[in-house]
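[Meeting: bench + compute handoff]

Bench side (C.D.) handed over the final construct sequence. Compute side (W.E.) agreed to return the predicted structure before the next meeting so the bench team could plan truncations. Sequence as handed over:
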Amino acid sequence: MAIDLQKMINNLLAFYEFDNKKVLSIGAGGQFYHYGVKAKEVIAVDSDKAALNFLKDSIEKENLTEKFTLIHSDFYKFKDHGDVLMFDFCLHEIPNPEKAIQHALTMSSDIVINDHWPSSEWAYITDEEVKATNSWKAIENTNPRIIKKIDTLQFFQDFEELYNKVKVQGERTIQRIEKYKGMENFNIPMSYGLALI
């Protein structure tokens, strides 16, 4: 799978000023750690140990280990204070996103959310459109300062690459990708949103 990761990173850095800030990054085990270059300090929290190990390897390659503290924890058990708390493509996975945002507001006055857009074809394929809808409703209920929708594409060389990427999502996802069987060098539209609360 290929995605214009650099463009997504640039969009995030243009959306919010991370310079010299203490960042509480929730769901931090993904690919969006480059804000750490500008940040003063990053407390990276993820409930998935394998995701944290991926992040550890990534920040070691980028010589960012001194800025990052990695914490394996459930979000609701985590408590700290920072200049900004960021949900990194994970708010839709946290039970009760509205409660999660309220918990986040006890730790920081700036909340940045980077997450799947409800009407995204990719959210549908991965069977996350209902979760994404619920998380964006929770975001809208907090009267966010800014919301920005961004459209991009997921690229795949063949069906097997797509299957291996999404099979962990379950049977419904496997059924939804059937239409891509036999295809090569195809893309799937992916929309996501950035919000500042």
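W.E. noted at the follow-up: The mean pLDDT is 94. C.D. will use this when planning the next construct.
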